Each structure stands twice: as structure tokens, then as C-alpha cells.
Amino acid sequence: MEALIVQLRRLQETALAELTKISATKDLTNWRVQYLGKKSELNALSKQMGGLRQEERPLFGERVNEVRNALEAAYLERQTALAAAEQALRLAQETIDITLPGRAIGRGAIHPISRVIQEIEDIFLGMGFSIVDGPEIETDHYNFELLNLPKDHPARDMQDTFYLSDELLLRTHTSPMQVRTMERMQGDVPIKVIVPGRVYRRDEDDATHSHQFTQIEGLVVGEGIRMSDLKGTLESFAKALFGPEQRVRLRPSYFPFTEPSAEVDLLCVHCHGEGCRVCKGTGWIEILGAGMVHPRVLDMSGYDSTRYSGFAFGMGPERIAMLRYGISDIRLLYQNDLRFLAQFARA
Amino acid sequence: MKVSYQWLREYVDLADLSPEALADKLTSAGLAVDAVEPRNKGVSGVVVGEIVAARQHPNADRLRVCMVNVGTGEPLQIVCGAPNANPGLRVPVALPGATLPGGVQIRRTTLRGVESNGMLCSAAEIGLETRLLPSAQATGLFVLPEETPIGEDIVKVLCLDDVVLDIDLTPNRSDCFSIRGLVHEVAAILRSRHSFPEHIEAPKGAGESPIAIDLATERCPRYEAQVLDGINQTSSPLWMQMRLIAMGIRTIDLVVDVTNYVMLEWGQPLHAFDADSIAQSQIVVRQAHDGEELVTLDGQKRTLTRDMIVISDPEKAIGLAGVMGGENSEITASTRRIALESARFDGSSVRRTGQRLGLRSEAQQRFEKGVDPAAISPALARATALLVELGGARPIGPSVAVHQERKAGDSWQIPFVPEQCREALGFAISNDEMEAIFHALGFGVHRQEDKWLVEVPSRRADVTLTADLYEEIARLHGYDNIPSTVTVLPVTPGMRDRRQAMLAKARVLLVNMGLFEVRTYALTSPDALAPLSSPYRPIPLLLPMSDERRVLRTHLLPSLAEVAVHNLAHQVPGGAVFEIGKSYLTSELPLRSQPQEREVIAMLWFGETEGTLYEKARRYDFYDAKGVLENLLAALGADASYVRSAIPWLHPGRSADIVAGEETIGVVGELHPETAKAFGIDRAIYAEIDVASLLATRESDMQAKALPRFPGSRRDIAIVVDRETLVGDLLRTVRERLATSGLLQGLRAFDVYVGEGVPEGRKSVAITMFFQHAEHTLTDDEIEQLVATAIDALRVNHNAQLRS
Predict the structure, then answer these.
(1) Separation in Å, CA of B186 to nearest CA in chain A
(2) Which whole-number Å values give the CA distances from B201 to B194, B195, B204, in the listed order?
(3) Fold classified for B713-802
(4) Helix ranges (DSSP H) in B141-283
(5) Which residues 6+ apart lie within 8 Å of B325 measured at CB?
(6) Backbone phi, psi, residue B397, to 5°
(7) d(CA B760, CA B752)
(8) Alpha-carbon dihedral of residues B157, B158, B160, B164, nearest 10 degrees?
(9) pLDDT mean for each 10 residues of chain B (804 residues)
(10) Angle at B544 (CA atoms; ends B542, B549), nearest 5 degrees
(11) Residues A143 and A48 reside in one and the same domain
């Protein structure tokens, strides 16, 4: 038996030694057939058990099993290692250039003016305002007369007008919708609306003027509305649009349809009040016109000015877009060069 | 409005308030100061000198060698090139070491071998606006009056130490179109006293005025005139010239300068006529006759209309009221007697007349905005006094004044309740403080308990309502003192309506499908619209600014085509753009009522796609556009189908009407080659969706269905049909034929093939169908039955053959 056991040991050593040299799955299969298969030496040795003594047989059988288990275990281990190595190799071969671009899903851009309008709309929607739209071709009556600008009023010079006939014109501001909204509401309060839209003035196009541009009008009418409410509303708006450190400054001004009237300045969005080129060193930038709705406008629109009051404001999305995005020439906004527009692709 | 700081300071105590600080205060009070400009543009070391001798330069034809007395004893030798460098003239002399505007340094130098100790200056060289000077003074040396003290600093002589504030006056503040108004305003802002004389005593001549006035139009509420004799036709004093120039007014001669000076001082325009040219010494203020002619002071023959006011005598018109005088009554060198006019004319009428004739004088601007009736008499008195003082004129008789029956009041009263003012403005301010503000403005206050009457002088025509008083309180108390409060109002839901919400979604959807939003001009040219052969004639502007922008567009395609042309010309190989915009449609021209404003989502694909690693660059085609539309309309809940279109400006074989329900809601197609050519582009795909129609056809809200419990089965067939057969028709046949079964859950074409193995004129279409039953798994027999039915219908309706 000793001799057999020696043979077993030698077999084990030889098999394990060979196993370590194997690096291909095919060779591993051959190894398995050779050392663990039906015709293997191990099987042949185990068959010699019959020639052993009765008392030696269990011991020998145990040894044979030990060797078989050891080889099986070594085989499995080797197989796992080889599979891992082969997978690693395959993965390495499958490596791609992850710096190449992905399959393009075309993405355009919302026009910067629309972006600004949407943002402003969202701020006022959050404050409970509704959005109303109105006609771009207006009557002289709504565009001027009901806004306290009778014919031949010198203030009409402030807005050079494109006339289509004696009575019809391209609206010079979104303010006619103040009157149209009040008429539609037929005396109901509160009114809280904003009016975004295209407007037209007889201006030569240059870096800061455009014969067509957009405006956002705002109107609030109710009982007990104060001028301080106008300031508070615009301050909330300014903080929402330009950040919590924003402040507004009102300066007396004149619009025929508001009294008192104000120009509204914000802290310069570039220098935050320090004074820079954008704000011409003043620290403030003019951004809005506003005021308390003129009593005559209220009365003409069916709201008794001794009972109701309100405020109105108007701003230019182009100006805000230009400040925001550092655009120096308004014409870029109407040229629609895709290289320009592509700069606004962020969602 | 340009205003001289020194002139203001003459009447109101500015203490040590600098021009810049004054500008800030004016701006804060609503008179926005655009610029603060020193009169001195960099002059120093320039004094008054007298040319005592001048001789020809030995080495230069055009130069003279002058000996100049500058009050320092020895005359200075100065070489000068001005043709009027003549002995006896007093002129500005830049001494060695002087600086002139533009940083020019004057040094002792030698000019062509002759020593020159300084420079004799022209108006431009010392920074004066030559366009505001008489032509004789605009070129050559600037000649100073004979009595100008020699050696005096020119800065003092020409008031160059003055500073000009350029105020952007709002149209309501016509009162500040004068020194008088600004004095009142500044005094109110500073709460200081002023010394502007509101009443002027004019020297009166003996006897009666030779002139009679007849007011024959209601549009002249008041007219006054003073006749003067013996006027010395000279130039006005330097200080007056400098004030006029500082405020942007040309200096001409004494009479004109005095009328302008008084206009600046009082805001009341004046006009001087040659009194001897007024027939029968009678001034008639009347409406012009249609077709009446008048040659105005600028030499232009004007044809007048009935709605213009003219100053006339019984025989002829002699001036256009408030706009411009007539040449026939112009003051000339031979004029002996002048008639000075101070009047008020209807602002609207003056404005219209000026607009009609293309004139816009300083006087006209003041009449348009309204002049103070209380200034008419004192302004006339002031001008009379100045002409007497400066021109040696003698008044003949007193002034004559005629006015309409109802004389405009010198003041009016406005009710004012202090508590209501506090409520309207939202800030605390005491009654006494309010009263102090009114007093500072020169308003009277009659306090009766809590109800006041505020008396407003006629110079403040802009203050007529209680709300106007609120503004005065707010602006003089300071807008900065208004707190920020929150409106106390019932809560209102803020949300976009259906249309607004849909458009906001459409915008994001299109952008996410690669389209760029553009914003184009609504004004275009008829030529740009011509290729569309639209049934609508475009609405024209009455007064266009250019040919390119003179009608309102009837379609968006030309606008988008313009975008394509611009981009293709600027190295952009192609792209897809959209605009949510309007076209303006009417069937009646000239326009009588507001036209239809048709809102569309318009899209254009032009040029090539951007090539990528995965797909080569290629031209955009119909299916790019259709894919976007299908996606967009599905996302917006519209169930659309595509029907061959008959629109003439689109490719007849590559265009479709987009139909939802019964209604055509839009169109998509490749531009007809002729259309594309007319727009200057090679090929492009246009699509548009009518917003109102889309909104009308949108489906009801989404409804969930339970998921099927039994598996379905897919079957593919390939059939051969005529080439022109529309796949959409094949699918519709299958869908309709199998509709009753309720089992067809999916249907689409997945391949269209023309070529080898398919007969000439035919094409192979592969269709996949998906069948599913809610209650059981379909058997093969059931499915084969359905497929056979479908194939049968295709054969009957479309002459389809099953492809083996």
C-alpha cells in the first residue's frame, strides 16, 4: 500500500504542477479528462484497491478521495481564475473611446427674449397674476385716448407711431391692455395681470433701438392699493429675477396714464451698486416705468377712481436680456444667427 | 432743455451746491439731468488783447505779424493766419503757457523765422459752438466788443466758468421750459427763497399805441403787442450772447436775441414784426384760408390750410402763429419801428401746423406744451425794457392786450385730504410737512379741518387733479422715503390659460427636437411676400421708414426664409428654426377695422444636417419635418393625419395638409423649387400649425386602460402595390377592415422597397400587425384568419399581391 500511496502523492504533485501551467480553457478541459476522467491514472489507481487488504482499503479509499477532492478544488479554482482572465481580456478588447461624442439628440434653443419673458411670467404667476394677450394692431382710441393721451397731446411725441390709417396703428406699448382688461372685468376686482407682447415704434434700428420690440405690462386694480404696494411688488419681482440682494429705487417721472409716475431703477446687475461702465457709474440701472393708474384712466375704464386705485408698470424684455446675457447690440436679438442663438441652449 | 447754472443762481440761492449736486437733486425730483457740462472746454491762460499793429509776414503770404496789447505794458509779437487780424480789434489771446480745448499747449515759438509769443484765437479754438454764432464770428478771429477790458481773463469775459445742465424734461413739465419755472422748481426742491421778479414794470411811451388788434379766431386766447421806435440795430451784449449759446440758441442780432432771451427766461415765445409792414397798423389773428400762401422767414413759400392760425393785417398774412414769422414783415437793417408780439396760441393747432410744414422751432415747442397765461404781459414788459436799455428803443404808447371773453384764470383750487394722500402713497408724512411742500412750490393752502383746498398757480398747468398733488407731495418728500409694502388683496390663482400653456410646451418640445426659436420682424416688403401668391393683400404703413419694412406680413415663411438666407451666408450649413408669431390678414383695404391676427407656429428646415460620427451630413427632407410634427402634435394631444396638399408654393408631390378631425390645422412640405428660388434658398421644408385651430381640436384628457393579461402576437406581411399607392391608405384599409374585430392593437409599415425582385412601377411594402385579445391568448387559427382578412382587403382595394 505504501507504494500506492506514494504513487498517489506523486500523481497529485504532477497534476497540480501541470495545472499551474495551464492558461487556456481547452487545455484545462484536457487536464480534467487526464487527471479526473474515467481513464485517468487516479481512476486506475483506485481500481487497485481490490488488491489491498481488507483493513487497508478504507484508508486507501480515503486517500484517493482526498487526492480527487484536492484536484477537483484546484481545477475549479483554476477554472474561475481562467474565466476571469479571459473575461478581462475580452473586456479589454471591447474597450471604446469614451471621449467620442454620443449619438446626437438635436437640441435647439429658446430665444433669449422668450427666455426672459417666460422667467418674468413665472415670477408673476407665482404672485397670483394672470397673463393676458392683446392685439398688436390697435386703435388710436385704446393705444392713446383711453390712456389719457388725447390727439395732439405733446406726450405722443414720446412714442413715434406707425399708423395704418387715421384710427388704426401698430401698438406702441402693451398699455392698451390695461384698458381692455378693465373693460373685460366690468368693474370686478381684484385685477392682477401681466401683458407680454410685441410693440412697435418708428425708430431707426441701431444698437439700442429696434422698430419692433417686446414689453411686459403689469396692472393691479383693487381697493386701497397704495404706491408703497407698487414698490413692494416690484421689489419682490426684482429679488426673484436678479437675486435676494436686489433693491429698487423709484424716481419721479411722467407717463400720461399714471399719476404719480416713476422710473424704477435696480441695483446695477453688473457691479451691484459699486458703479461701473454698464450703469455709467451710478450703481443703478433703469429697468421699468411705473406708477399709480391715472384716475382718468380708471374712470374711463369703468372703475370709480374715488373707490378703486391701482398700479401699472411696464418693462422691456430686450433690455433685461441684454443686461443679463451681456448683449451689447439689440439687433443681434432680431438677426437670428444660429451661432448666436446656440449660446442659449441651456434648459 | 439746456440750462445755465449761473443764470439759475442769479435768482435762487444755491449756496455751495455744486452743479453736479444740483443735477442729482433735480433728477431725484423727476427732472432727469442727462449731462452736466462745463462751458469751459479746457481754456486757460487766454486773455483779451487788442491788435495794435499788423504787418505782412516776410516769409509767408498768408501770415501776418501782429503786435498785441494784452495789458502787460510791452505789446506781444504774435504771428497770425486769420484774414481778419486787423489793427483795432479786441480778440482772445492765448498767452505762452495757455491751454486750449483738446489739450493744445501754447508756447513761445518761431514761425517761418518770426518769433510768435502766443496765439490769437477763433471762436472754435476757445471752444465756442460756431453753429450758434453769426457767420461773421464763426470764422476768423473771434471779435470781442470794443469796450471789453484788455487783459481780462477770457473765461470771465465769455462766462466760460458757467456749467450747463442738460435736463430731459418730461412733456408734462412745460413750466420748466424756462429759467422762471426752473427757479421755482429748484427753490421748492431746496426749500429756499428765490428772487425771480414775477411782475415787471415796462417803460411806457406817451400817447396811444399805434397798433390795433383783432382776435378773429378762438384759438388765440390772448394777444399783446408793444410798438417801439428808434431801435439801434446792433448786436446783443456778450453776456446775453453767451447765455443764449450756453442754452443752445443761436445769437443773431439784438432784437432776435432779446426775444429769445426773454423766451428762455419766461418760457413765453415772442415775435418781432416790422411795424411799418403791417397794413393799416392792424393785426388780425385768424385762421388761414385754404390755399393761402406765405413766404416764411426761411424763404420757403408755404401753402396754408384752414386749420392753421395766421397773424395778418387786413391785406395779407404776415406770420404763422407760434411757428414762424413771414418774410414780408421781417426786421431788416432799414426797419425803424418794430411791433413785439406776446401771445398764447392753441397748442394742438401749433403742433399740427408745425408737423404739416416740417418745422419745429423753440417757440413752437413751448406753445405745443402750453405757455403760462400769467407770463404773457411780464414777458412783453421784460423784452420792452431790454430793448430800451440795450438798443435805445422808445416805446410808442403802452402795450395793447386783447383776449377772449373767458380769460384763463391765474390759479385754480384742488381739493386735498391729507389722510387720503397718506393712504394713497402708503407712507407717513405730517400735515405740516405737506403744507410746507405746497408752500415751497408756491401753491396756496386753505386748510379747513381735514379738507384742504390747494391753490395752484397757472404756471403749473400740469397740476389739475388731486392725484397730481399726491405726486408733488411724493416727489418732494422723496420717492426714496416710500416704503415697500405688500398688496393686501384676495388670493388669486396665477396660471397660464390653455393657449399660453400649450405654446409654452410647444416651445420646449420643439427646442428639444433640435429647433431654434427665432423672433423676426412683422414688417416686411410686398416683394418678400410676392412668391406666396397670397389671397390677402398686405396692410401698408401710412408712413414707412424704409422699403424693406413697409407692409405687415401676411405669412411667416418669408421671415423664416430671411433667417435661412442670413445663416447660409454666414457659414451656418443649415438648421431648423421656428417662430411663434402672427400674420395680419384683412380683406378690406384701406383698413377700416382691426384685422385678423393669425397666430401660427411656423417652422423651417434649411440646408444640411450637422454631420456626426454616426450619420453623415445630409440635406433636411420632408420626413425630418414630419417626424417633428408627429412628435409635437402627439405631445400636445392632437390626432393628426396628412393629406396631399394643393398649396401652389409647395412641392406638389412633397407637401401635405395636416388634418385633425374635419379641420385643416396646418401644412408641411418642401418649398416648390420656384418658391425656394424666389427666396434665394436652395431647398427647404416649411411647416406651420395654426394655433387657434390646434387649440380647438385638442383631445380630452388622457385616460388609463388596464394592461392586457394575455400575450399578443405579431405578424409581418410584405405586399406589392403600385408605386403611387400611399402607405397611409394601405394602413387605413387594414385598420378599417379589422376595426370591428377589436383585436388589432398595433399597425405600422416598417419597410418600403423598390428595385430588384419587384416589378417595374410597383413597390414592396412590409407591414407589421400586432393582435391581442383581452380575455384569452389568440390561437394561430384566429390570427391567420385576421391576417388573411387584411390581405384580402388590401388586394381588393389596392390591387396588392402578397410577396413570396
Answers:
(1) 15
(2) 19, 16, 9
(3) Alpha-Beta Plaits (3.30.70)
(4) 154-157, 179-190, 238-246, 254-266
(5) B271, B273, B296, B297, B318, B319
(6) 65, 180
(7) 15
(8) 140
(9) 95 93 94 94 95 92 93 92 92 96 93 93 95 91 94 95 95 93 96 92 87 93 94 90 95 94 97 94 95 93 94 95 94 90 94 89 90 94 96 93 78 95 93 96 92 95 94 95 86 92 97 97 95 91 93 97 97 96 94 96 96 92 96 93 94 96 94 95 96 87 89 95 95 95 94 93 96 94 95 96 85
(10) 125
(11) no
Task: Return the residue matching grid coordinates 396660471.
Answer: B495
At B377, phi and psi to the nearest 5? Answer: -70, -50
Question: In terms of domains, do A233 and A301 share one?
Answer: yes
pLDDT of A5-22, one tens digit each?
888 889 899 999 999 898
Contact state of A232 with B427 under an 8 Å Cβ cutoff: no
CB contact under 8 A, B521 and A211: yes
Report yes or no: A258 and A312 within 8 Å, Cβ to Cβ: yes
User: Which residues neighbour B736 within 8 Å (Cβ) at sequence distance 6 or greater?
Assistant: none
Domain count, chain A: 2
> How high is the pLDDT of residue A249?
93
pLDDT for A158 equals 61
Query: Does A252 sit within 8 Å of B479, measured CB to CB?
Result: yes
Q: What is the CATH number of domain B411-481?
A: 3.30.56.10
Cα B419-B422-B426 angle, rounded to 5 deg: 145
Shared fold status for B2-39+163-190 and B411-481 = yes
Q: What residues of chain B lie within 8 A of the CB of A106, using their CB?
A: 513-515, 576
The boundaries of the domain holding residue A49 are 2-93
Give the residue on A whose Cα is nearest the Cα of B574.
A338
Angle at A22 between CA A21 and CA A27, to 5 degrees: 145
The rounded radius of gyration (Å) of the Cα atoms in chain B is 41
CATH homologous superfamily of B212-403 equals: Phenylalanyl-trna Synthetase, Chain B, domain 3 (3.50.40.10)
Cis amide linkage into residue B398, ω under 30° from 0? no
Here the ipTM equals 0.88
Residues of A with CB below 8 A from B495's CB? Answer: 125, 130
Cβ partners under 8 Å of residue B706, min gap 6: none
Q: For residue range A129-159, list pLDDT tens digits in order.
A: 999 999 999 999 999 999 999 887 777 766 6
Q: How far is B528 from chain A (nearest CA, A)?
A: 17
Q: Which CATH number fits domain B44-157: 3.40.630.10, 2.30.170.40, 3.10.560.10, 2.40.50.140?
A: 2.40.50.140
B204 close to B397: Cβ distance less than 8 angstroms: yes
Q: How far is B385 from chain A (nearest CA, A)?
A: 33
CATH for B2-39+163-190, options being 3.30.56.10, 3.20.20.70, 3.10.180.10, 3.40.50.970: 3.30.56.10
Q: Look-up: residue for cell 505794458?
A: B73
